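step: validate -> pass
step: tokenize input -> pass
step: predict -> running
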Amino acid sequence: MKAVYITDYNCITPLGFDVSSNWNALLEGKSGVRLHQIIENQPAFYASMIDTEKLNEEFNKNFSKDQKERQDFTRLEKMFLLSLKPLVEKHPVSEETAFILSTTKGNIGLLRDQKILPEGAYLSNLAQKIAGFFGFKANPVVVSNACVSGVMAMAVAKNMIRTGKYKDAFVVAGDEISEFVISGFNSFQAIGTEICRPYDKSRDGINLGEAAAAVFITSEPEKNEKFSFKITGDSAINDANHISGPSRTGDGLFASIRNAMNEAQVSSEDIDFISAHGTATLYNDEMEAIAFNRMELQDIPLNSLKSYYGHSLGAAGLLESIISMESALKGILIPSKNYEEQGISQPLHIIKENQTADIRHILKTASGFGGCNAAVVLEKALN
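step: predict -> pass
step: emit ->
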């Protein structure tokens, strides 16, 4: 079977507009989560939001007047374009290049006060706009499956390349915070009253976040690549439990992990690090703990990045995968911020401070509304 590799990546978040600035902020324990007044005449919410003024400044600096004047761009579209630009500049786009866009809500902000659905709100139009800007020749593919979208997009790229029709792919994932998104999660009483605390006894809900992330995936890595991570296994399973609540027994996540590890031909002893979903809601964190224990992964170092970035929906899985790969390259594990006392029924090896580690195999998981679960195994190429 043809091997498929991630050889380049980039991200745009409240902690920085490239990977190195994000990594340095994480090492210092910085969080992008703070109080924001999002809904008029409503209390402020803890969330991680990109500064619009800085976003516009970076966009204006990175794109020419001619490029910007061709059409108007939303905040989210600017995030997508900025995250993709460094990758497209380094890796040529051909007829054999796939383009995959991952998002949960897309340009949802365009719906505000509208009686007719704007064209830009269609996810297919959003993907075509971004693809057209960079001259992608293949029809873009949209992956929108709640909060597992970012992880699934990598899997879709891997499987598209393995068909032989494509030799490489660009995957971009992103979502922004809007009044609609905040209102939806608030209606479930899922939003925390402070910076979130994944897996902790005192956790009381999520913080929402916004980000964009992009990776370049190829079956033909160049010899001079600075790094490469093989996508060795993936799986997505729906537990069909509830519109918003996960299976109490972790069936869907357990099956996703089992299938991904079987494809990757690794055992629990081979996994060096788990980048978990860890939303800090009561049911999600408990379900994950059960699933990891069922797979005998309870002793593997694990973190959640939600206390740094909030939950960036369709971007979360891709962004957290990028940080995981950076961890493997640097040999440093980032702690699960704000974790103090175990608040789950089964033990996990939750990272509490920066620590050195030799990381070769990464397990990345995600779960979302509608009972969706996904897992991917990444293997760092040996020098």
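step: describe -> The first strand starts at residue 5 and ends at 12.
step: cleanup -> pass
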